[in-house]
Design brief:
The complex is a heterodimer. Chain A is of the alpha/beta class. Chain A has nine helices and 14 strands. In chain A, strands 6, 8, 9, 10, 11, 12, 13 and 14 form an eight-stranded mixed beta sheet that branches. In chain A, a hairpin with a 2-residue loop joins β8 (109-116) and β9 (119-126). The N and C termini of chain A lie far apart (40 Å). By secondary structure, chain B is of the alpha/beta class. Chain B has helices at 10-27, 34-53, 57-64, 72-79, 121-126, 134-149, 167-171, 174-186, 202-206, 227-235, 241-248, 252-257, 276-295, 299-311; strands spanning 81-85, 98-105, 108-115, 154-160, 192-201, 213-217, 221-223, 263-265, 316-317. In chain B, strands 1, 2, 3, 4, 5, 6, 7 and 8 form an eight-stranded mixed beta sheet that branches. Chain B is globular and about 65 Å long. The chains are: A alpha/beta, B alpha/beta.
């Protein structure tokens, strides 16, 4: 979603400029429509014109998913550690600081438990605006703990993914989070408890190739980009144009990779129904 | 003899060429030059020892990708006996980028599988440069399950640039195939020993690498992304691969320190490709005691120990707790 950065947005009609205060309007990435921000928010950040689902923050996701006042957050203070002293053009330490400042979160993940339409569930929600929702040790650990807590309290698990994949700055340790989270979900499966994976735009790389594809039920939001390799990497490898709609939710549904596509406004209701049917 | 020298091996190239020449000369029944050969060999060995003692991460990457480096089938045929290859995922096709089957280790039956690269152009294309499609991972999963059903230990060999990034691979669920293997391996009730023998390329490597013991041959690499890929993304410049290789900490020594692998298996002086027989011997003497140890655990303790092992990976802090 592009937020207008200019202080004033001017409507140049008939040479007279109408001054509109900052941040009142948003432009749809998909159809280009200029939407009144309040209207987009009322519509759960979905474009009223073309039904494009904007990326939303982890907090907003929790708010529209859980019954009011029921969400209790886990491990809020958990923070990343730069164990490798990683440095590319910037230091990882500085990237962490900047991301924390921008998002108000310690890392790209909020976990907790609460009620979804009256059904108890543990949840893990990605914050894409924190370093592209990349998975490092904190993300992996929080997911594993949330899953273990669900086993303990006999509840289901819902994970909302929105991630570019593994966090390169934690190198091999981020790769190992794929094994850690998948192992935790294997235990949940053995315990006979349901896991619903919700794929939102984008769900790629190491996140896609671990817990995101392990749901008992896998749901995607409309038009989300979902895949293992990035479309540019694939296009460069095969030196061909990619098929229309490639790696989008609708394409994955057609190819049998996901169970269903659910619009944001129906997500809570769908999750609640599924949990109630799968909980024993 | 097939030879291929890496950029940093220039100083030994001349010496080794000279040795080959003298050998050929001697073999054709000409003057004896054994003494000269012995002298040159000693000199080469010293030089190699020096060179290989201070390889940079990017140089190790080159050794890991060396065209004459032993591949999975070389290890399978030389460390194990009676290999019987099994094919196919029972659904779509047989993926030659992953090979596997039944074999014996010192007489006892086991399941072996690994990524397979090709030596010449035709073989490389056939093996898809060791980059599996989903059906390769599904064949692997079928073999994991076979191992478990018959209580056979599982040995995997990792050597891939990564899972194949292709349209068909995505359409057939590359992500799901990898994820399903991670989940399945974490619960296998038989001992699992994985060894990185060349390139450990990201999720495509880990998909056969969740194990009770993870070994790395001394000059192999294991990483979340290739140094070239990382440089292209973070430095926006693919030629900064040397910096990326260093930052990523992809070599066996670093990974042992991070607790991601359990053992570094020594390679002969100048790398496994210079003396494959020595590499096979070293690997065999590394895995035999590991298997013995793991066999002493009952299935439940084995699975729980594996769970704990992966559960504890990673670093974070919790200040106010």
């Amino acid at each position: 979603m592009i937020w207008f950065k200019k202080d004033l947005f001017t409507d140049g009609e008939e040479g007279k400029s109408v001054k509109v205060p900052f941040g009142l309007w948003v432009k749809c990435d998909h159809c280009g429509e200029i939407i009144y921000k309040k209207e987009a928010e009322r519509n759960l950040d979905v474009c009223p014109k073309c039904n494009y689902h904007f990326r939303i923050s982890a907090r907003a996701r929790i708010e529209i998913t859980f019954d009011e006042g029921t969400f209790r957050e886990f491990d809020q203070s958990m923070e990343p550690v730069d164990a490798l002293e990683f440095r590319d053009v910037k230091k990882y330490k500085d990237r962490i600081k900047a991301a924390q400042r921008e998002t108000g979160l310690k890392d790209a993940m909020i976990t907790g438990e609460g009620l979804i339409g009256g059904e108890k569930a543990a949840a893990a929600v990605f914050e894409f605006s924190y370093m592209g929702g990349s998975m490092g040790s904190v993300v992996g650990e929080k997911i594993a703990r949330a899953v273990e807590s669900a086993i303990e309290s006999r509840s289901g698990v819902v994970i909302f993914s929105s991630s570019g994949g593994a966090r390169m700055q934690e190198s091999i340790l981020s790769l190992m989070q794929m094994a850690k989270t998948s192992a935790a979900l294997a235990k949940l499966r053995e315990a006979g408890l349901p896991y619903i994976s919700v794929l939102t735009d984008p769900t790629m790389g190491g996140v896609s190739a671990s817990f995101a594809m392990l749901g008992d039920v896998i749901i995607a939001e409309p038009r989300a980009l979902i895949g293992f390799a990035g479309p540019r990497v694939i296009a460069e490898t095969i030196r061909q144009k990619l098929p229309e709609g490639f790696q989008r939710s609708e394409y994955l549904l057609e190819h049998g990779i996901i169970d269903m596509i659910v619009e944001r406004k129906l997500m809570k209701e769908t999750l609640s129904k599924l949990l109630s049917m799968l909980m024993r | 003899m097939y030879r291929h020298w890496l950029e940093f091996e220039k100083p030994v190239e001349e010496l080794e060429k000279k040795i080959d020449e003298l050998r050929a000369f001697e073999a054709s029944g000409n003057a004896r030059s054994s003494e000269d050969i012995a002298k040159l060999e000693k000199k080469t060995k010293a030089l190699l020892k020096d060179l290989y003692g201070k390889l940079t991460p990017q140089q190790i990457t080159q050794v890991a990708r060396h065209p004459y480096r032993p591949y999975t089938l070389d290890y399978v045929q030389n460390v194990f006996e009676d290999f019987i290859e099994l094919h196919g995922d029972r659904t779509f096709r047989d993926d030659p980028a992953i090979t596997g089957g039944l074999a014996r280790l010192d007489g006892a039956p086991v399941v072996v599988l690994g990524h397979q690269k090709g030596r010449n152009t035709k073989e490389k294309v056939f093996r898809n440069f060791g980059m599996p499609n989903p059906e390769g991972y599904r064949k692997a999963k079928r073999l994991f399950e076979l191992a478990e059903r018959f209580s056979l230990p599982l040995f995997t060999f990792i050597d891939t640039p990564g899972a194949y990034p292709g349209v068909g691979a995505e359409e057939r669920g590359q992500s799901e195939a990898i994820a399903a293997n991670l989940m399945a391996m974490s619960r296998l009730k038989v001992p699992v020993i994985a060894t990185v023998i060349g390139e450990g390329g990201s999720g495509g490597a880990l998909a056969i690498g969740v194990a009770d013991r993870v070994n790395m041959m001394e000059f192999s690499t294991y990483s979340v992304i290739s140094p070239e890929g990382c440089a292209a993304i973070l430095w926006k410049d693919g030629s900064k691969a040397d910096l990326a290789a260093k930052a990523l900490k992809i070599d066996a020594g670093e990974l042992l320190k991070l607790g991601v692998i359990d053992k570094v298996v020594k390679e002969p002086v100048g790398g496994a490709h210079r003396d494959p027989a020595a590499a096979f011997k070293n690997l065999k003497s590394a895995i035999l005691p590991q298997l013995k140890e793991l066999k002493e655990l009952d299935a439940a303790s084995l699975v729980e120990a594996r769970y704990r092992k992966y559960r504890s990976m990673g670093f974070f802090t919790e200040p106010r707790k």
